Structures are given as C-alpha cells and as structure tokens.
Amino acid sequence: MNKQNRSTGLPANAEGAPLNEESKSNLILDKKLSRRDMLRLTGATSLGLLLGGGGVGGIMAARNAVAEPTVTSDADSIPFYGSHQAGILTPAQNFIYFAAFDLTTTKLADVKKLMQAWTTAAASLTTGSLIGNVNDNPNLPPSDTGEVDGLNPSRCTLTFGVGPSFFDNRFGLSSKRPTLLADLPAFTGDNLDPKWCGGDICVQACADDLQVAFHAIRNLARIARGTAVLRWTQEGFQRTGTADPKGTTPRNLLGFKDGTGNPDTTNEAEMNEVVWNNSSDGPSWMSGGTYMAVRRVRFRIEVWDRSSLSDQEATFGRYRHNGAPIGAKDEFDDLNLKAADASGKPVIPPDSHSALAHGDGTVKMLRRSYSISSGLDIATGQLDAGLLFISFQRDLMKQFVAIQQRLSKSDRLNEYMTHTGSAVFACFPGIRKGGYIGEALLG
Ligand SMILES: C=CC1=C(C)c2cc3[nH]c(cc4nc(cc5[nH]c(cc1n2)c(C)c5CCC(=O)O)C(CCC(=O)O)=C4C)c(C)c3C=C
Ligand SMILES: [Fe+2]
Predict the structure, then answer these.
(1) What is the bridge-based pairing of β-strands 95-103 and 201-207?
(2) Strand bridging mode 366-367 / 382-393
(3) What are 243-263's pLDDT values in tens digits?
(4) 148 lines ligand 1 (CB under 6 A)
(5) How far is the CA of 404 from the centre of ligand 1 (A)?
(6) For this UniProt entry, which segments traverse the membrane (predicted)?
(7) ipTM
(8) Cα atoms in the 13 Å half-sphere on the side-chain side of 298
(9) Measured from the CA of 403, which atom of ligand 1 is nearest?
(10) How do residues 72-102 score in pLDDT, each as one tens digit?
C-alpha cells in the first residue's frame, strides 16, 4: 500500500514526506492508481489540467498504464455511467437541486471542455469523492468546497440535458437540433416568470441529502466559471425514506398521493415506448436519451386548505386517504372513466385532474416531481409553495404538450395553482466510461 503524508493525505515517500514530481510520475507509471490517488497527486492543479493532457494526464496517455477512474457502486451510490443517464428511472431520491445554466462562451470547443470536466466531476460527486485534491494548499482556494467531506454519496444522481437555445447560431449546432426539441407553446392560464424559465443546459441533481445535491450544483457551477453561469435554480423535496421506510407513493403539498398512475419503470418495453428515444425518433445522438419537461407550479395553498374534502377529491378524481380512483377501492385500481351513478353522472368527474390527464389511457409520461417551498410571498403574506413538475417522455409534443393542453383548458385543479416557470431539455443518452456527457452530439 502507498504511504501517505499524515497531515495532507497525499502519497508520501518512506519518510512520510510528500513525493516530488519525479516520484509521482514513477508511482503512476508503476502502479494502477485509484481515482482518489490520482486526484491527490495532481496537487493544487485544477480539474482542467487533468483534462488538458499535460502533466499526470499526459503520462497516463503516453504509457496507457492507468485504468479508468474507479467508480464504485454500493447501496448509497448510483452508477453514473451506463446506457441511459441516472436520475430518470432511478427511484426518486428525497431531494432535488435543479439548475439551468446559460453558456457565456461562443466557442464549441469550450462547451466540449466543460462537458468533459463535468463528466470527471460528476463521476466523483456521485461516488461521494471530493472534487480535485484534498484542499492541502493554504495559498489556493480548495478545489472542493468541502461541505460533503465525510458524507456518503446519498444516492446522488446528476442528469444533464440541453435546451432549444443550445442549438441557436452560437455554436453551429442548429442542424443538430432534434425537431422534437422546441420551446413549449403558451398554455391557457400560464403566468410564467422569465426568472424560472429556459436555459441552455440543465443539471438535475437528486440525492437523499439536500447538502449533497446542493454541493454537486455548486461545484459544477464553479467548474463552469468562464464558460457557463447559473440561470435559475430550484430545490425540492419529498417525504424522506426515513419518514416512509416502506416507500409508498409520496404525497404532494395538497395532501394527495402523486405518482400512482406512472408507468412501470422496471418494465423495459414500456420504458422504450414511453421514455427512451431510439434511432427512428430523431438524430442518433439522442438515441437512448429522453426529453424533459419542467414546470414550476405555485399552489394557492390557502384557497385549497379552505375547500371541502369532497371538492378536493373531485378535483383529483381520487380519494385522499389512499389515492384510489373515486368509486374504486385500492390505489392502483384502474381509473374507470365510464362508471356512472344511478342518475347517470360520471363517478369520476370528467374535468378532474386524473380523468383529463389519463384521457383514453394511450398517452403516458414518466413523472418525477418534487414539492417546493420558497418562503413567503411578501406581497400577499401567502406561502410560495407548490410543485416542481418534471416529466420524461420520448416526444414532448405527443406526450407532455398533448396532455398539458387538455389540462390547461379544463382541469379543476387550475383553480388552485398557477404555472410560474417552464423549460424543456433534451437529456443525453447515458455516458460510457472513458466518454463524456453529450459526446455523441459534440464529439
Ligand atoms: C402535462 C402533464 C401534467 C401536469 C402539468 C400535471 C400537474 C400536476 N399533477 C398533480 C397531481 C397529480 N397528478 C396525477 C396524475 C397525473 N398527472 C399527469 C400529468 C400532469 N400533471 C398524468 C399523466 C397523471 C396520470 C394520469 C393517469 O393515467 O392515471 C395525480 C393522481 C395520482 C397519480 O396518478 O399520480 C395527482 C395527485 C399536481 C399537483 C400538478 C400540479 C402541477
Ligand atoms: Fe398530474
């Protein structure tokens, strides 16, 4: 085993003194290094240097002697690499920190470098490793901000996508924009605030610990400095796994189980039908990817809290206590939209949220939403709370837009909410070890 300097944790010589550059190179050439060793050896150098092919990176390339960074997987760690990105079919973690970025560069090469640097960082962040070195140089800012030092990965996932604006004329990529990726049309009742809309790039950070999710976005934003800036962020939560060890369907802030009608994420055929793009859907760089719709929705909580239980249940078309469709017994019973009472009146109101969203049952989407609470609206004294609605689908128009058009016109729920933010993103296919985020598009 390598000896380590006790105060810095860096690889050391037999006397415990830090290694000089030659010794570092020898160590690299002689032995396979763990990712952590490699990052430590780079000392105070930035992540960029690692990627630049110089120094340690250059040696690695020259001798081809060092394996890929090791990414471990245990109960708290969700693999970052794979055929699809994590954070889509992954059972929802307790928290989200969602971030939309705008690019400040006009050079495609910078964008590519950013994606490469983010890939390296994301592989560390999702395994609970610190970014870069061990913060040992007192004369430089630490390469990792430090707030997750000693924490486990908390099932952190980072999901990356690009918005329609990514394909404008800045980078010469307009011919690569999928026709399925376009800004959403205006919907009846929209009350969108530009401060929660759009973005060239999105990063969805989810984790069972909010500090872990926050740390991921904070450090990705640091790495992006000079190339991209944060445009908007939104944090969100669900009941935690500790509060609900059985992992029942989470309830939204209106008190109803939310997610019951989702397709089965363990059914591969269904996911291929509903979520994943294939080569017949559009450009090959999106094959294995998916489209994300994000809507920041504010609830009129105070109005909702004054409405009767029967009104609330008619609004969703489901019972509040167990989430079953009105007239049915169990949460996962089918929605029978044809059932009528003795007077011929539909048991489930046709303008209820579930009835309208379900339609004829042929169009589905995968919802992965989080509750949000952003303090008080000081103008009204009311809670600024609601839902960060997120859905993944193969086709935004045929799925999200088709359903949202029905909802926006007649949903009973509209009385109790308003959409304040909106964005769509093409989420890349999975990242292969040795590759980088968006490689098929940018490579
Ligand atoms: C355009 C898509 C949808 C938006 C926007 C949306 C907003 C929204 N939904 C809830 C709460 C619930 N939604 C439920 C079901 C449901 N919602 C959508 C789509 C959108 N919802 C679909 C496709 C479905 C499933 C319909 C089906 O086939 O059964 C439910 C019922 C329980 C469940 O199935 O999850 C609730 C509750 C809120 C609060 C909201 C506000 C932004
Ligand atoms: Fe819904």
Answers:
(1) antiparallel
(2) antiparallel
(3) 999 999 999 999 999 999 999
(4) no
(5) 10
(6) 41-62
(7) 0.99
(8) 18
(9) 1
(10) 446 799 999 999 999 999 999 999 999 999 9
| CA–CA gap between residue 392 and residue 327 (Å, rounded) | 30
CA-nearest of 157, 294, 124, 153 to 223 is 124
- Dist CA 288 CA 149 (whole Å): 34
Q: Which two tokens stand for residue 81?
A: 């690499």
Residue 350 has pLDDT above 80, yes or no: yes
SS3 label, residue 136: coil
Helix (H) or strand (E) holding 296: strand 290-299
What is the pLDDT at residue 137?
85
Residue at 105: amino acid letter: T
* Cβ of residue 412 lying under 6 Å from some atom of ligand 1: no
Question: How is residue 175 written in tokens?
Answer: 């011919």
Collect all residues with Cβ–Cβ distance below 8 Å to 76 and sequence separation of at least 6: 128, 152, 153, 154, 155, 208
441 φ/ψ angles, rounded to the nearest 5 degrees:
-85, -40
Chain segment 105-137, per-residue pLDDT in tens: 999 999 999 999 999 999 999 999 888 866 678
Could you identify the residue written with the tokens 């610990």?
Answer: 209
